[in-house]
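Here is one chain, start to finish.
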Amino acid sequence: MNLLSVKHLSVRLEDRSVVEDLSFELAGGERLSVLGPNGAGKTVLLKALLNLLPYKGEVAWAPHVRIGYVPQKIDADTHLPLTFTDLFRAKCTTLKVSLSELDEIANNVGLTKRILQTPVGHLSGGQFQRGLIGFSLIGSPNVLLMDEPTASVDEPGEEHIYELINRLQTEHNLASIMVSHDLSFVFRYATNVLCLNRQKVCFGSPMEALSPDVLAKLYGESVGLYHHDHHDRLARNKTGAV
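Its structure:
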């Protein structure tokens, strides 16, 4: 059963076309990665799916869908004493969710009491992203929308975030739509990939859809791929585009 059906979605911002006539579907448990260069409309797509931007076309979520959202970044004022404990409790109150689930969520994403009680403006990139992921899990979502969840994380920390996301998706059977720039992550974990540059460039399984010709069309230059390990699924290249 599809959790999401998108038909002929178009978004214009300030008289500029950002997403044009986009159609795709998301099934239960599916992991969809969205690839594309700067200005391709990736973040705009997520915001349209969340009904945060006006659009034309159809965005139809299944009635039982519960969405968790991990934004690319949040500008946190280092002078504000706001902590993830404050944010978690506020969301629980808004959703009328018991505070008792917060300890389990914090443990699942690796947030210690010290991290939870530290002002968000003083957290490292990795700690902050774990906090945002934990925040998205409140309310037991069955779909996660993630906008480059490793954007503010240094390279050594990226792998830990990727492994965390993969574990959470596996344990909770979460469907996801993730904007990514890392082909190694896409080839390891995504079930489908949507290549976007205002219009849909490709859609399908990474191994079938991400040919060198498609990547050249998407990014305007050749992006080399090579296989690694006995599954022949891992590509160790980054496009460098966000």
